[in-house]
Amino acid sequence: WKEALGKLPRHGAIMHLFIAIDAEGLDLSHIDDPAHLVVQDWGRSLQDSQNLCSFFIPSILDKSLCPEGKHVIHVYSSGGEPYEPWEKLKPGSDEYEAYKEERASVLWEAVERCIPDIRERVEFSIIGSPLAHEAFLRRDRGTYGMAWAAGTSAPYSGLLRNILPFPFPDLKTPVDGLLRCGDSCFPGIGTPSAAASGAIAANTMNHVSKHLDLLKEASTIDPMYEFLNPGILGDVYKPIVGGFTPSSELDASQIGFQTNIPSTKPASTSESAEQV
Ligand SMILES: Cc1cc2nc3c(=O)[nH]c(=O)nc-3n(C[C@H](O)[C@H](O)[C@H](O)COP(=O)(O)OP(=O)(O)OC[C@H]3O[C@@H](n4cnc5c(N)ncnc54)[C@H](O)[C@@H]3O)c2cc1C
């Protein structure tokens, strides 16, 4: 399990460029959407970080993000920036700074399509390199995340992996009662997905009545959450699935892991302390 999961393929990194500009006399009224995707050449891979990038001007939507007469802009590449050329460079060195400028120039060019004189307007800019993501976010080799090709199932991606292609391993481990969560397991990369894997882990460990109670409680917090109330559906659902929760998947032996790792399952109350 450790061997297989430790060797899963990963994406490259994302190149980032954060810009603050003087927007004096800048008319952006032609932009309906503050987020744009720029593809240099549709004949090239969209994974190529020098081919695909996006820019986003959040201050079009929310004026409180910067002082009046300014704009903040975030430009970023696909997650395909290769790490290898970067790993030879020392942050702060002239070579590193020059390579940062070289690799980020495609990001400047993307936003220039919308604001041609952006470089004259710049008041602040900073580039996020793979080494920055590695150092500040502790992402291994600055990666955007695990990369399993769509259409096939990753190892340990669950009992349905032969029927449905799940590109991320599930939460289970060979250790009883130990689950993983985060963006290297199902449902995958992104803050919503990483949070969802945490919710799946919590649900796996609890009786279904706890989920239903929590949903009921959340539904009373604000009228906009009323839809979360499980209502009569919850009453029907509870006796049907209650017997299967907490999930038996917490017991590694039941899901086919052959392991010598000692069980961490809490001892039953009938066992004496000595037996434990
Ligand atoms: C550059 C970049 C841009 C992204 N942009 C977006 C986006 O716009 N929208 C979106 O939804 N998602 C985005 N993502 C993806 C999203 O950020 C991740 O999928 C999500 O944050 C993963 O959450 P996580 O908790 O699994 O891991 P992480 O957020 O990576 O958290 C792991 C934590 O573990 C810590 N850690 C690592 N190793 C150790 C160790 N040995 N000991 C102790 N602690 C350790 C790290 O410091 C880190 O705090 C982006 C990712 C990157 C790298």
From TrEMBL:
GO BP annotation list: carotenoid metabolic process
Listed PANTHER family: PROLYCOPENE ISOMERASE, CHLOROPLASTIC (PTHR46313:SF3), PTHR46313
Protein name, per record: Amine oxidase domain-containing protein
Organism of provenance: Craspedostauros australis
